[in-house]
Design goal:
This protein is α/β, with parallel strands linked by helices and 565 residues long. The chain has 16 helices and ten strands.
Length: 565
């Protein structure tokens, strides 16, 4: 078995397992699809009976036939609607299950070692989960109902006129080969479409994120042409898939139309008396009309399965991406249990090495101890590994080798996700009030505690200057704050969490001297009695530290004490 065949088998198994959350609904939907077939057969029987009664001028039979036709029509429509509703419910359950897995894998709480790009993450979360769910909603009920429905149609056809059933059986032998060819024919086109979609997602996301830089460089027009090219590539790939699907569907229609035409010709010639199969029952209007009406029903499940071949290829592409993201998540996830809040937390790095997947060299190599209640500054050039080292200490990533431990006088354990406070160089403000933005990490915080966080972060004067104080709305369509004020809101958030270990990633980046001084003063107040590890280029911030460590090409070294705070 080749590597591609092994991956395809794995993807197929994964695709089948994804149906589990909606399997109950799909089973019910399949049962109702079968019931719909039985109601439809009865409906066409009632119509044929009515036509025969009209020819025989049997008024009573004609009336009862019309009543039966109306009743079974209502039942068939009701069964079809209910089956569709149940299939949609199952699809929602499948999509929700996949998105829950993706959420666990993409968020930091999963402790992933490698990174998933935001464009691919959004594509998987928004589009690919729906591709898998839609596939199961279409095929899972069909796989249950199709055999029973085809057997029911074939049994009725054989019961009323067996030569017509033989024609259906002979035609059936041609269809599986065509369905397989249709799937193989469409696979290459779907691969191209998925690659084009991924590329367009990345281009759009990068364009929005870097719009300010593009504008400053005068490169907006060039980027627009890149975006147009990516969109045209996706359009060509999509049209190619549609052409392939149309061609494979046309081949299927030719086979089905030929079978129905043979039966229709035979029935017409038999009714006219030109053809008579030995030992075959006599054909009348009722028999011939019923056979003609139910023959297309025999091929309907096959037609649906053939069109699902194309959808299956899309679902397999989706599953391949989702599986790679989810399977990259470590099996053992560290719980978000906070250390004791009454003590500052020390950190110990023992022979720690970290290497990104596919990298030739380690990104970080470190041996160090951070004493409880002290400030440590980590300096180094951009890209030297400072942020990666902080993420290892926080438990957002796991080391490739060695160990990271948090310790107090009572416990020594691996990093606990959510157990430390993190302040970075970018502060995200939600479209919400100042109060809601501050208590983001602790929604149940009391008002007194929020006021303490505001005071510790040096936000009191800022809050007083806002139109509605803490109730002032920030974000899109709301009030604006400066970068330094936003950074102090982040400090208030961290203070509100009550963590005794603070990790600061360039907290004074892009600030002027006055704003930097205010942020440093806010950090000193908010972190009193806490352990602080800060990655920084700022000399004033490094001067506030008890110890300074340098990191050069990922290697942590040159531990040197500085004057205490």
């Amino acid at each position: 078995m080749t590597t591609n065949e092994m991956y395809e088998k794995s993807d197929s198994a994964w695709l089948a397992a994804c149906a589990a959350p909606g399997r109950h609904w799909f089973h019910l939907s399949g049962a109702l699809r079968t019931l719909e077939t039985l109601f439809t057969i009865t409906r066409w029987g009632a119509l044929a009976w009515t036509a025969q009664a009209a020819m025989d001028r049997a008024r009573a039979h004609e009336t009862w036939g019309l009543v039966a036709f109306a009743v079974t029509s209502v039942l068939a429509v009701g069964a079809d609607w209910t089956a569709g509703t149940l299939a949609e419910r199952g699809a929602r359950a499948v999509a929700t299950g996949l998105r829950q897995q993706l959420t666990g894998a993409l968020l930091p709480t999963a402790g992933r070692i490698s990174e998933t790009g935001p464009a691919e993450a959004a594509w998987a979360m928004v589009d690919l989960a729906d591709d898998v769910a839609d596939f199961h909603a279409r095929t899972a009920p069909l796989s249950r109902s199709a055999p029973l429905s085809m057997i029911a149609v074939l049994a009725v056809t054989a019961a009323v006129h067996w030569p017509a059933a033989i024609v259906l059986v002979l035609s059936t032998a041609l269809l599986p080969l065509n369905m397989r060819l249709a799937g193989l024919f469409a696979q290459h086109g779907v691969d191209r479409q998925s690659a084009a979609t991924r590329h367009l997602n990345a281009v759009v996301l990068d364009s929005f994120r870097g719009m300010r830089t593009l504008r400053e460089l005068g490169a907006v027009g060039r980027r627009g042409r890149t975006l147009t090219t990516a969109a045209e590539q996706l359009n060509k790939a999509t049209m190619s898939v549609l052409r392939r699907a149309f061609l494979s569907g046309m081949i299927m229609d030719v086979v089905i139309t030929f079978s129905i035409a043979v039966n229709a010709t035979y029935i017409g010639l038999s009714l006219l008396g030109y053809v008579q199969v030995p030992h075959a029952p006599r054909l009348d209007l009722f028999t011939g009309l019923l056979v003609l009406l139910v023959c297309p029903m025999y091929f309907a499940p096959m037609r649906a399965r053939a069109s699902a071949f194309h959808q299956r290829e899309r679902a397999l592409i989706a599953v391949g991406v989702i599986r790679d993201i989810v399977n990259d998540t470590p099996a053992e996830v560290i719980g978000a249990v906070r250390p004791r809040l009454t003590e500052p937390v020390g950190v110990s790095l023992t022979a720690v090495r970290f290497r990104y997947g596919g990298a030739d060299e380690d990104t970080v190599t470190a041996d160090a101890d951070f004493a409880p209640g002290t400030w440590t500054a980590i300096t180094g050039a951009s890209g030297s590994g400072k942020s990666t080292l902080l993420s290892l200490i926080a438990g957002l990533r796991r080391p490739s080798a060695g160990s990271v431990r948090w310790q107090t006088s009572f416990v020594r354990r691996a990093p606990a996700l959510g157990g430390c406070a993190w302040v970075g160089q970018q502060t995200v403000l939600l479209d919400a009030t100042v109060r809601d933005n501050i208590r983001l990490g602790r929604p149940d915080a009391a008002e007194q505690r929020i006021r303490q966080a505001v005071e510790a972060a040096g936000l009191s004067a800022v809050i007083e200057g806002l139109p509605e104080g803490l109730n002032t709305r920030l974000g899109e369509g709301g009030w604006g704050v400066s970068t330094g004020e936003a950074r102090r809101i982040a400090i208030a958030r961290a203070f509100l969490r009550g963590a005794r270990l603070w990790l600061l990633d360039e907290p004074t980046a892009h600030l002027d001297a006055d704003s930097e001084r205010e942020v440093v003063e806010a950090l000193r107040r908010a972190t009193d009695g806490c352990t602080v590890i800060v990655a920084t280029h700022s000399l004033p911030l490094a001067a506030a530290a008890d110890t300074v460590l340098a990191i050069d090409d990922g290697l942590l070294h040159d531990v040197r004490p500085v004057k205490g705070r």
